[in-house]
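Lab notes, practical 5.
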Amino acid sequence: MKVVGRRTVVVWRRRLGAALRIAVAYAIVGCATLYGPREIQRQVTYPAFSYLTATLIVSEATLGDTLRGTWQAIVGTCLVMGPAMLSLWLVGPGRFTPDLAALAVALGAFGVALPESTSLMSKRIAFGELVIVYVGTVIQGAETDIVGHPLHVAVSTALGAVASILAMVLPFPHLAVTEVRKACKLYAENAEERLSLYTKAIVAEESSAALELAAEAKALEESAAKLLRTVKKYQDGMLWEMPRLRLRTPDFKHPDVRLQEVEVSMRGMEMALSSRSQNPKDAIDQQIKDELQTTAKQLASKIEKIKASLPFSTSKTHDQQPNDDTPEKKIILPLNICEIEQHLLLCFFFFCMNRFNDEESGARKPIPKEINEEDRYDFRRIFTSWLPSHRSLIFAIKCSLSLGLAVLLGLIYNRDRGYWSGLAIAISFTTRRQATFWGANARAQGTALGSIYGVVGYLICHKLSVLKLAFLLPWIVFTTFLRHSKMYGEAGSISAVVAALLILGRRGYGTATEFALSRTTETCIGLLCFVLVEVLLHPERAATLSKRQLSQCFGTIKEFMETAIALPSMEEEKATLETEIKELKKFIAEAKLEPNFWFTPFQGDSYTSLQKSISKMGDLSSFMASAVESLFQELRKSGDLWKDNQEQINVDIELFKAEICSSLEYLKEATSTARLPSSAKNRETASPSDLEMGKQQSNSKSSISSMDDEAMENITSTFLQHSRDVTEINRAEESAEVRNKVLISHGCIGFCMRRLVTETREVEKAVRELMMKERC
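Output from the prediction step:
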């Protein structure tokens, strides 16, 4: 209960702080536009966009994020001002009709959205400015100042950006460096505590004690994931606050990369712990327990060094630190060769400890890629890199059509307030896929809620402007918490706070009720245009994309297993797999939010479980590849004596990979079709033209997905037998350290083999159940 209470206090403190920063930014804009000098009021003709700019920049930001957002706002403004002034001069302000304004917005949005190098924040700011410039020209007609009108829009943007910066430094700076340092420290403490729990659980003699420790460690694992997300969120802002980090240390390593290296080893220990909790009866010698405790203390001291060096460490910082007075103790596993098969779990646990130890000692260095000198002067490649990708082209078309149509319909509905249909969607575009219907619904509901609150507030305290702004404060706090809800999210919370803000912080917009109704209608027009274009350009549902991506992930994990275990460096293969898994996770999250309509309900829990299983298989394959690399490095030191045995171990690993990859190939094909056969017998007797399999089937072994349990157990046992033979060869001439490394590597490979078989069987079962649910 104390932990829950402390976490609640931290959440309240953080979100209240974010709400107060937003309130300060709004107060600065409000005071400048309502009570500031007349010159400022005359230049800032669009205070609503100042509020919008501050909302985009300040929301849960730090000073570094705000500086970056301000620079991006400047870039977005520069993209709009020149072309806008030129078009107004060429065409003439008096000739701009709603049709021509919509066309100008569409063309301008296409030009802004097409370059991939432009940040999303710059594009959103530019979209909003395009809408205001051209809609304002239609409203003002021939009286529009060709230079002054766009400059007024730019000044309004600048006021929002300046207010954002001031909000980050008043009453004291909110620094990304502080947030990253705090998160790194908490993560190091979390990792130290998890390491202690893993060590205690792995040697626990009672099942209840092991399960209790495992549950406690699981809770800490979830907290660690949140801390890593916090570090990743704020670390770029840290570089804006301290640019000398990037200038003085060109090999600067982002803190999240360093912490991810620790997390990989921690995930391995957690996998060993989950296996231990399932088999708590394995007897562990006291000497092994003592060695585990000693090793855990040694690694804890390394975590302390991480805590001291982050977030300003580079990839060489730790290596350059002076050595401790006491020499580093090597991890020695006190097991006999004949005990390998009984203690695969311990070997794997020790291997994860060794991996963590080697990473922090700088022993594991990625192999640098050779640079082809001819590629530097490949002008064809340089030219093609500047061409827009298919993704950026689709995004530009989507933005162009949505904004153009929204501006046209908005001006037709209400010529004097045609801004809001375009502005409602200008600040909400994203380059990635999004839950279209959920996002539109959240924005519409947020706009309605904010408008109602604003009207009520206006009716209560419309005579005093200061009281209106004070009435807005609790709503800002509420929407800050609303941002983290599943129902509304960021889109709904921004719409809610802006809707209330524009009613309570306005001047000269007519009656509050009329303005709220008109703006809500305009917002719905813009959202309808956005949904229409989104559906036309992305007709495939997220549920369909999740199925396709699941099949792709099975193919990627198969390729990873085939290649990574045979390669000394597998950074690219691992990165590709992680990218595919993240893409699957995004599609699943979107599919859970989209409405089912007349389609089969999306089985979100099943897909999430499969995504986690694939990720776990990738980790196991990575550990197995590292163990094979470590093993063969030791074998090569022994010359020709172990050559035959090394070849035999290679044969065992290849047989194992063939079996696993055969199942993964089947799963890839099965999930790409409409149905999955319910049993292995059906698969073996499938006709060559079985339409349910999606393609012509062969009678080869690779078309059979169900693994033979006895065959897989024989492969693992044969590998372990060969491992014992290898270790016994010339045993008298080996050092204890070499025997230790060989022993741990063999045990780690054996553990990974058995866990991969178990995970593959579970995935097969989950896929079969998923297909049965989707057929019902």
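Observations recorded by the TA: The chain has three domains: 2-173+391-537, 176-236+253-272+287-315+336-361, 542-679+700-775. The radius of gyration is 31 Å.
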